[in-house]
Amino acid sequence: MEWDDAALARELESLAPGSDDVADVFSERLTEISIAWRDGSPGDPRVCVETGTAARRRARGDERLAFVAGSGDAAARAALRALRGEPSDDAPPAEAPSTERGPAEAARWMRRLPALLARHAPRHRLRLRLLRTERRIASARRPVVESARRLVSIEGIVVSASRLGDEERPFSFHAPDGGEIADALKAALVEAAAPRDRPIPVVAGETDVVLANGSAAVLFHEILAHPLEADAERSPLTASASASAGPITVTDLDVRDDPRRLDLFGGYERDDEGIAPRAVKLLLSGRVGARISDRSSGGRTGSSGHGRRAAASEPPQPRSSNVVVAAGSATSEELVRRLGDGLWIDEIQSGSVEPASGAFRLAFHRARRVRRGRFTDEIGPGFLHGEMLAALRRIEPVLGREAHVCRTLGWCARDGLVLPVQGEAPDVLVRGLSVRPAR
């Protein structure tokens, strides 16, 4: 993805003469290796490589984007010509996604994963995806920025024993690629394959819930991060974001969105506009904080470094990355006692929110029922429902003493754009959520 940086800088400055104008070129090379595993036997590794380059200009409220396949200096020039509406005789040929077998990059995982699976989850149907993203960004009056990121995503089914026979359980694990994730993956496999009682059906109604083992990060991703993305539609949270508004939840609750957490799946050193990110305080002492912004929406305070693209062909948009919740001081035993009667949920599979109404939904595969401060039956699968402001008001002012990474949270789809995200949270007790069985 080498460019003639000096010539490119001159062209970009000519496209953005005003101090508030924006002109940039964004190039991306995405390599995805996919390996299917079934009961310890891997399929053939397959790799798909996609490259693309986009040129963008925003001036006087008008924004234009031009995209070409390929990367390098020729692709950058072709994208700029397309942006200006000029014919391009030397445009690079379109690069169709390429597919190859047996990539050397998969060798390390082909060696390490069989032993983990054989020991901790021998029966499974899983797909391992290794993703490497390389980006290069040039902006008017800014230095060229390069970044690279490697991610691991494992999803599928783990088969476990129960008292009434084998049980298939959904499994998902997302993390930055690195040697330090082996212990976290081992723990996730052990938990997924552990023998348990067969769950009984969920009874619809209203219940108190402890979101444990980092799963509260999914709740806050839906009801805080999405409504506070700068281009989000108005929500019940909007009116509570003024400087004069008081706390909307317990003052012990501090939540931020932090792309700088490179140990989490949604982290990065530079956003897709080349901006070094900063943590955004979504909730501070129970009050609504700042918005997640990109260069277009940053205003006088500037971008928070959350300009993200789902692909080179898409414009950057303000999007969440890693929702991080500060820990409290309560032990798990104390939270079980405070819960009294309700549900203890260790894992949330997915979540969604309707910003206009504030309604949200969280899906779980199984939960533990708590009666009189003691664990009893296992139940599931089901859904939790609520409204964002009501749920925030009903959070108990006692948070778990340890924050846990939510490895099941890895991908977020909004308006058809899919981006890596994650979160970390302590155990959180919420009163009065609605629960119903999954159909």
- Cα(first) to Cα(last) distance is 49 Å
Tally the helices: 7
Backbone shape: globular
Describe the largest sheet.
8 strands, antiparallel
Taking all Cα atoms into account, the compactness measure Rg is 23 Å
**pLDDT below 50 for ≥5 consecutive residues: which ranges?**
none
Oligomeric grouping of the chains: single chain
Say how many strands there are: 26
Q: Classify the helix fraction into a percent range.
A: 10-25%
Beta-strand content: 35-45%
Structure in words:
The chain has 439 residues and is an alpha+beta fold. Helix content is 17%, strand content 39%. It contains seven helices and 26 strands. The strands form five sheets. Strands 1, 2, 3, 4, 5, 6, 7 and 8 form an eight-stranded antiparallel beta sheet that branches. Strand 11 and strand 12 form a beta hairpin. It is globular and about 70 Å long.
Task: Describe the SSE topology.
Blueprint: H1 5-15, E1 22-38, E2 41-42, E3 46-59, E4 62-69, H2 73-84, E5 98-101, H3 107-120, E6 124-139, E7 145-162, E8 165-176, H4 182-193, E9 205-211, H5 216-225, E10 255-257, E11 280-284, E12 287-288, E13 307-308, E14 317-318, E15 322-325, H6 332-339, E16 342-345, E17 350-354, E18 359-364, E19 367-371, E20 374-379, E21 382-387, H7 388-393, E22 404-405, E23 411-414, E24 417-420, E25 422-425, E26 428-437
Parallel strand pairs: 9-16, 15-25
Antiparallel strand pairs: 1-2, 1-3, 1-6, 3-4, 3-5, 6-7, 7-8, 9-26, 10-11, 10-15, 11-12, 13-14, 16-19, 17-18, 18-21, 19-20, 21-26, 22-25, 23-24
Give a nutshell description of this structure.
The protein has 439 residues and is an alpha+beta fold. 17% of the residues lie in helices and 39% in strands.
